[in-house]
Amino acid sequence: MATEATMLERCGSKCELCGAETELSPFVVAPHTQVTVDHAAMLCDTCKSQIEDPETMDANHWRCLNDSMWSQVPPVQVLAWRQLKRLSEKEGWAMDLLDMMYLEEDVANWAAIGMDDDEEKPRDVNGVELKKGDDVTIIKDLPIKGSSQVIKQGTVVRGISLADDPKLVSGKANGQSMYIIAEYTRKK
Ligand SMILES: [Zn+2]
């Protein structure tokens, strides 16, 4: 709940894309899968349903991006960029806005990656694809399943392997082999 409370405070209880003051819920921005303050936006049902089902997209609703594209919040920037990108195929105004938009490099990478919805590859916290043999740093203390130990934030895992589940990688930390959620690592 703490995450949601922080997010509600961030957005002032308004949809972070269209500003609607209605019931909001966190929307995780792909390829991320966990609701965190850094990876999710608070959205109204209208924005959410049109993002999830682009067929139902009402171009006029998305005029709101005129304002929200200037958000300082990365997940909101990513959503705005992707919606403008989709709209720009048909709407000249969306293309103009897209041209004006500026994203930091890692935010731009994140925005571009998520456009491929069916790409199932393990990705680190920045959305960078992880490959066999990569070295990664653990970005937060992680409890080890079935024990009271934790892998400390900052631990380096060298030469990871991939797992069947694309959300996981495997590697050795604290002298033991284990599976690690890819999103809790940063590629070195
Ligand atoms: Zn909205």
UniProtKB/TrEMBL annotation:
Name the InterPro entries for this protein. PhnaA_N_proteobac, YjdM_C
Q: Which residues cross the membrane?
A: none
Q: Which Gene3D superfamilies match?
A: SH3 Domains
Pfam families annotated for this entry?
Answer: YjdM
Limits of the PhnA protein N-terminal proteobacterial domain = 6-52
Q: Which SMART domains match?
A: PhnA_Zn_Ribbon (SM00782)
User: What top-level branch of life does the organism fall under?
Assistant: Bacteria
From the Swiss-Prot or TrEMBL record, give the protein name.
Answer: Alkylphosphonate utilization protein
